[in-house]
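Example 3.
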Amino acid sequence: MEPDTFVSTLQEWIEVSMRSSMRHFIRHARESGLSMSHLVALFHILRTGSCGVTDLGDHLGVTSAASSQMLERLVLQGLILRTEDPNDRRVKQITLTDKGCRVLEEGIHARQGWMDDLAQTLSDSEKETITMGLNILIDKIKNLKQPIESES
Amino acid sequence: MEPDTFVSTLQEWIEVSMRSSMRHFIRHARESGLSMSHLVALFHILRTGSCGVTDLGDHLGVTSAASSQMLERLVLQGLILRTEDPNDRRVKQITLTDKGCRVLEEGIHARQGWMDDLAQTLSDSEKETITMGLNILIDKIKNLKQPIESES
DNA sequence: ATAAATAGTTAAGCGGGCTGAATTATAAAG
DNA sequence: CTTTATAATTCAGCCCGCTTAACTATTTAT
């Protein structure tokens, strides 16, 4: 198979699917009164379960001062909890509140709507072909990401 | 096929691929001194070829004043051109300069790196399966998007 | 020809988000 | 015990992006 065909198809799909996802997601964010930075932060907290202030700042590419200030706003909005780490009382453990979880779930759901619509236009055999292909991709990308994550 | 399997697989793929794309893309944006809004705007101009100030604002979900101000900065940075529409002298035609095109291409290229890495871990038959599936998706999503675009 | 609608710009004001520097509290190293 | 390093916070100051409102220029409708 032509070396370019695969990558360019993948690229086109990413472009078009990201556009769909982002549009709905951004709209939901605006309605919730959250900025993109807030959402990226909340997702990072969701994924890690719990993280420190400086960790989060590093992940977002900002100073710990900026991270601290943003977290303060998120605490005021009742989206996260900031508790002391009993092992090292210098660090704060950042976790999502129930409200924070709910907001994120709504965001994910908003992003999912067009996928349901898309699913309805597909036959079972088409779905099977696509699912098979995507599972390969998901599997491979996870193996690909390990070395990258540890490097950063 | 289970109704949920397809959508949840699709959802997982979108989540993981968006994360990869966004990470590289955002890093490139910061290095170029462009904000997300700038990039979204530039991509919209690239896609439409040429658009008006208010159009762009509507697409971004902001007022025409905000759009105008942002475009002013992009003009100062030499990324776009703002010329008068000869058919209706009230409207301005916004187009990308060569520099603007170049910056976007670099952004796309930054986003594409991990796809090349991914491609190298796949056999030809896997690539074929995936390409087939993605092409179905791309085809269907394009048909799906027409009514949504016209509705907004 | 006049009135109304439309496209874009400008200015004032608000809040977000960032940085660097100073501060406090805790932990680790000498 | 003292020094040094680390985690988080606070503050001042800056720029960005947004809104509303006022304004100019052009087009369309009556």
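Strands of chain B lie at 80-84, 92-96. Chain B is about 75% helix and 5% strand.
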